[in-house]
Each structure stands twice: as structure tokens, then as C-alpha cells.
Amino acid sequence: MRVGCPKEIKNHEYRVGLTPGSVREYVAHGHSVVIESGAGAGIGADDNAYRAAGAQIVKTAAEVFTQSDMIVKVKEPQPSEWVQLREDQILYTYLHLAPDAAQTKGLVESGVTAVAYETVTDDRGGLPLLAPMSEVAGRLAIQAGATALQKANGGRGILLGGVPGVLPAKVTVIGGGVVGLHSAKMAVGLGADVTIIDRSIPRLRQLDDIFNGRIHTRYSTVEAIEEECFSADMIVGAVLIPGAAAPKLVSREMLSGMKPGAVLVDVAIDQGGCFETSKATTHADPTYEVDGIVHYCVANMPGAVPITSAHALNNATLHYGLQLADKGLKALVDEPHLRNGLNVHKGRITNRAVAEALGYEMAEPKAALAA
Q1: Which residue is catalytic, options 266, 270, 295, 345?
Q2: Of 62, 66, 170, 183, which is most buried, counting CB atoms within 10 Å of its CB?
Q3: Domains along the sequence of the chain with CATH
């Protein structure tokens, strides 16, 4: 198979779908790889590194899309990219379709077979291709929130860990999954007073054991979220419903009860955000203020640390990517966890959460592939 990797074009996105190491693996499996010139610049991998790994370098993204049977990316295709996709191609990348009607329509009309990293599953019920970026985003959330809390950046002017004689900042994490766990680890490490809210009692027990009493845990109710938000200096939105739009757990009305200059970090923004007042921002202009509350809603947070995140992502995606390259659509038929990543196939939506969110008729993946 001919595998292509264009340069990412989303604002301040420095990651790359294939590292030189991944290219070597595809080549070792007998595939040819086409890389757009400069695609790896953000991780310090120049064109010569890709040539040494066995890739062919082309000048434009258009050449990559034209020449490739499978496109491997990091972020969802932008309008100029989805119009270049075609029916006999596989697209393998993050998609986050539920809150993005325009992209969904573009992929449906292209006829492409689109496999979303974020809905591929594993034997334990986890999301193995989402997990590494959730780890990065969870840790970055605290760095970004701490910066936003500085007075010069519009925040309250409070240090997360405090100092002797001065209380630390209060950090509330809504959602105890991968993002929530890693946010809490960073916040605890910096000395903050941390509370995690989740609706799973077993998960709260597990988190309590992991942190050995160094955090507070609360069962998720409207009252609990309100109380924690009103007392918090920073709130991290870390809620995920696989494939679906994130629930709005913090309303605009609640902002009036929060501390002026408090910070909301919405890590769920790729799925539409879990705060009512969230709107996607970029690394170029990451924050905005609503009713005195600072919002940080960057939609590609891991892009800020591309060397770490691109290698972590490739470590996770390579296994399934090689299956797709080796077996084509048969990989989706044979491997149920990879098939769970199928979101669009030949003009049909094959993910239930996406179909329900956007009003499409859902086609069962097996039936769509068989047709």
C-alpha cells in the first residue's frame, strides 16, 4: 500500500502523523511512504531523516493526497484537505466528528473510509489511541491553567502551591479518566489542593488509592459541581463520552458564583467542551474572559509539545496503522477494536454517537463494510 503523510495545517499544530521511526516500520512491511516536505519540522525531523527511513519526499500536500491509498494525520482534516479525499482511500487520524457538522458532511461527501483514533478500543474497554494525548493534555492543562492564573494574564494572581504561611490554590478536576488523573498528578505535584469529581464510585475509590489520601474525591451531582466550582481557583474539564459531544456541566449562570479571575481549562473542547461558555481557541490566542472568568480552550493542546506528543502518538497508532496498510479494509472486518474506530465509510456514518449527535442514519460498521 502507498501510505501518505501531509504536513499538519491547523493553527500552531507541530505534530506529525508519521515519525521517521514509524516510516521505517511501514517500509519494513513492504509499503511505500510519501511525506510532504517539512512535515516533520516541528519535531526536529527534516526531509533527510525521512529519506533515510525510506520515504519519498514530495513538495505539496496535494501530491500526498493524490498518490496515497492511506492518509495518516494527527488532527482532523481541514476544509482544504477533506475536498482532496476520495472513495478508495483510508483516512487514519483524530476526527472528533460529533461537534463538527461541516467536517462530517465533507467526509461523507468524499466517500473516504475514515478511521478515528479516538474511538478505537482495546480489550479493557479503554481508548488506546486517545490515551497518550489525554495524558499529555491532562498534564498541560495544569501548566496552562497556572499561567492563566497569573494576574498579568487576567487570572486571580495565585500560585498553585502557595508558600509557607499562604494557602495553595484550589483545583477542581471534573472527570476522573486519563485526563483527570494526569491533571491531578501535576496539580498535586505542584502543591495544589485538588478535588476530583466523577460519577463512578469504583473509579473514585481507585483514585483515592492512587493518591493515598492526597486528593479529595466527590461523586458528581449538580450540587457537588456547583460547590466545587464556587470555591475553586482553577477548574479542569476532563469529561469524555467516547465519540459523542461532551455534556455541558458548568453553566454560564454558575460563573457568577465563582471567584473573579478563576480559570476554566476545557480539555474536552475537541468534543465541543464541557462548559457552556467554551469556544475553541488556538495557541496563538489561547484565552478569553466571560463574566470575569478566564477560559483556556485550545483545541490541540498537545501540539504545544510536539516532540513528546508526536512520539507518544506514533507509539500508540503504529500497530493499527500497520494492520490497515497490510490488510486494507479487511483489517476493519477482522479486528473489532479497530472497527470501532470506523466513523465514516463510503458516504455513511458508522459510529452511533456521531450519527445521533448530528442527525444521520447510522450504518452498522460490519454491514457497511460488507456492502
Answers
A1: 270
A2: 183
A3: 2-119+306-370 (3.40.50.720), 131-299 (3.40.50.720)
